[in-house]
Input
Amino acid sequence: MAVIAVQSNVTVASGDIDAAARDANGRFTNVNGELGHGSIGDSVGFMLQRFVTYFRGSEGAADRIANDGERLREDAGANVPSVTWIGLSTLLIQMGKVSFLTEPIWSDRPSPIPLFGPSRFVKPGVTIYDLPTIDLVVISDNHYDHLDLPSLRAL
Output
C-alpha cells in the first residue's frame, strides 16, 4: 500500500513542475517558511469551541447505514468505478482492480488527546477490517480529522 500526501491550494502556471523543497534531512518543507500555531489566546479559543461539542446532539447527523464490506470486496475486481462514503472525509474509491482511501479516519475522536477531542457524529459505515485490499491512501493535510495515525497503523 502506498500513502500519498497531497499539497492543496497549489497553482501551476506552466506545464513544468518544480521539485518540492526539502530540508537538510530530506524532509519536505513549507515553501513559505515555518508556520506558527498562533497565540495562547488562539489555542484557548479553539479548545473552548471544541469543548462545546461535548454537549451537542445528533440532530442533523447523517444516518448510518451498516455495511459488512462484502459487496465492496466483490467489487474490488470489477471494472465498475465506485465511490463509497465511509464517514467524515473518508472515501473508498474503486477503479478497476485498484482500491484507495482518502483521509482514513476510524477513530471515535480524531484528536491529539482522544479523551478530550471532538467526537464524530456517526460511526464509519464499514469497519476498517471489512474493507477490500487497499492499494493506495491519499492524505491531504496533517490535521487530526485527515491524518489519523491509529487508522493508518491498522491499515
The mean pLDDT is 77. Residues 2-154 form one domain. The longest helix spans residues 40-52.
